[in-house]
Amino acid sequence: MAEPVNLNRFRKDKARVEARARADANAVKFGRTKEQKAREAADAARARAELDGKQRENDAD
Question: How many whole angstroms separate alpha carbon 31 and alpha carbon 43?
């Protein structure tokens, strides 16, 4: 005789596989690499430093 199949486990496994596939598709569609994130953070820091360097010393307002 064949082993009985737990239908709840089958249903949950199927949902888990579909969710993982959807997550992988979103990661490709919307994700950024670690290098891209680091480059953007460096650019933002550079721009912030440049603006801070142009700020007036006696800016009372």
Answer: 19
Q: Residue 26 is which amino acid? A: N
DSSP secondary structure code for residue 4 in this structure: P
Burial letters 10-35, b for 16+ CB under 10 A, else e: eeeeeeeeeeeeeeeeeeeeeeeeee
Residue 46 token pair: 């550079």
How is residue 38 written in tokens?
């680091």
pLDDT digits (tens, 9 = 90+) for 20-58: 999 999 988 888 888 999 999 999 999 999 998 887 887
> Which tokens hold the place of 6?
């737990």
Helix residue spans in 1-61 (DSSP H):
7-30, 34-53
